[in-house]
Records
---
Amino acid sequence: MIVNGLAIAGATLAVGLVLAYVLRSLPTVRVQLGALAALAVGLPLASVLLSGWVMFHMGDDVKILAVSAASAAVAVVAGLFLAQAVLRPLERVGESAAQLARGDLSARAREDGPREIAELSAAFNEMAGNIERLFDARRELVSWASHDLRAPLANMRAMLEATEDELVEPGYYVGALHEQVRVLSLLVDDMFELAQIDAGALIVDLREYPVADLVRACLKGVEAEARARGIHLEANLAEPAVARVAPDKIERVLLNLLANALRHTPADGTVAVLVHTHDDAVQVTVEDTGEGIDDEARTRMFDRFWRGDRARSSRQAGLGLAISRGLVEAHGGSIWADHRPGGGTRVSFTLPLVA
């Protein structure tokens, strides 16, 4: 009889452990806890029924008590086993969060375990990645701003020292000093405008304006530079469109894109502006026949202070495209870059269309 009781207890223990192991593979915490509740109720109930069978045949209450105690113990052990399987991934996320809080920006959580915990780990990793990129952008901002401010300041210092040492006439460098002050002012204005965009404090005075007029004005503004470089300008304005925009802001965006296209287009090349309408938006595209862009440039060219060739000057602070993105998004549009079929680069942005 004792052997039979021990056999029932052992079988219950084995079944409980197997079921607890199977519960670990269930996809979500909710399903796991539901299955745990069913196990906690079903396993003791099955044991009691089995004990009744033993009592009916053996007439021994001690066996019923022993089997019930064993089944209850198995349910507790199975619950603790499953709880550990659920809590361990959460503890790993907590450990990664603690590392991030201590300043380790490379800390990431393992994206495993039940679905909810895996999604939590993925969300944590995305947050950690954004924080790391934010700190990288801040370091890059300080580095490049220092670089772009240092060059004109060094030029101005050299001019002033030459004037003080009477190496040149007092008014010899007046024009050059004005130019360096202009460069510094443009850089400061760009940084201030970008700060306004980041803070959501940029104010745009929207009004209805023909897109073709904006394009013609910008093409006229770069016509002399294009002619000097031997680059042909084209415009496709077959689709008349009126957008709700702040004209001066969108002119700045388009001039930035045209200047960038001219800079990367060789002589005898072509830069074209295309206007298309679809749904409730108008799309403006600037294409060039230059060397094109790689995948990194396609995704990062709108980041502040980023240049694909790293060839920088005090006149090219790397903020133009970042400001362009902010201005377009302030209008409710979007901007992106892509490869042009046949070679070159295509940069497009959308604006709200007036019906």
---
Amino acid sequence: MNSRPRATPVWLRIARAYLRASNPITYIARRSIKSLDEKTLFAGITRNRRLCVDVGAGTSPYRQEIADCLRIDRYIAMDIAPSDSTAVIADGSRMPIATGCIQLVTSFDSIQHIPNYAGLLDEVARVLEPGGAFVVTFPFNYCECDVSDYHRWTLAGMEFDLRAHGFELLLLTPRGGRFFALACGMNWVVQHLLPGQRQSWRMSKTAVPIVRAIVVQSLTLPTTLLQWIMLAIDRLLQNDGCYMGGIAVAVKPRSRFPL
């Protein structure tokens, strides 16, 4: 089912720009995208035209980096809920996309919200062209989100699941370490000091939730700054076994999935 994007109010674009710039988690994702070598990532691709499906895209905060850094010709935002940037409304475990026609699938902090995550991985393997790539970020030591939240992964757990679904790993790395994970937990506590759940971009745009969001952002300024400081400290220290989450880059091998 397709949805025509709606016009975005100026105030909402400003709010999203602030959140995008201030959130260290989105910074890590943008940095990771920019660090990928598109020639290595698409070494097994035979087609010149590159299509990307972003599963659980929300408001598509990484669209520009994906398009520019990875030279994507067409970006398709997919989510179960409509937004002003959603192109396809669908469940990631049942994609309305033909087999083997996509060169890149991305999923940023969405896989934990899909009950049948194994079905998602099967669908990613199905829609990808042999040689295509899958970029996924996922949580480990992170508090429960305010929308349906089902799963957490260690790095080894995500590697096992990806290999079990036929993927080969190109990159698997943690996001932050023990101090960043601690700061993320503290930030979550402050976000939930006010009653009611924080529904992020899916919240209604009426006065009460908007005022609440402004208050929450004001209260979390100190813990957001702490997240940045702890992220910097973690980069200086050796860390094993405790991290906020991870990012994996995998490919669909041509030998296992021939055309």
---
Amino acid sequence: MRLAGVLLLALCIGAGFATGDAAAKKKHKASVFSASLSPNAAIPDRPATAQDIVVASTVTVGKKFKGKTVGDVNVTGIRTTGSATNAAQDLSFSISPPNGKVVLLEGTALGGQNIGPLTLDDDTPTSICNDSTLSCTDPNATLIQPFAGTANLLGLATGDTSPLSMLNGSQMRGTWTFRIWDNSNNGKTSTLNGWGLRITPERPVR
């Protein structure tokens, strides 16, 4: 993953997109944080003579969650549309909590033209089958192109089913950043249509 020295196109999305659990709002207590964003941002081809152009979209977890740490996090509703067949194959993306730690979510393992809406969740047994038909031998690899549904991260980046758990214990409050970039210079571009977060606080707070 090449993040150093890249051109960063930041799309800062305010906390106004965040919605909390209705019951928790009534009690004025922090519950589950949920946000859904629609950046509709172009993801340029990798320049022939330069490094990847990273597109960043951010959401801020507000003061309601001050002192809360992550118990579970899902990256929700990831949607991209590609300009040509297999444009999705060129894409990688990551998520970072406020402390700046980077978790690679996908490393060019998704084929086809478009992605999603895809939710990544450690707790589901379903994993990706990177094909347009149900051709994988793993009985749990049932989410096929364009990956509209929920899956774990097996085979997408680290080969593990629970890299999102690396974020457990992280501070919730602050700016979370979703980054996406195109690894190839082949004329196939994509658009980041949407993504989101669902964060359940850890109890008790560390």
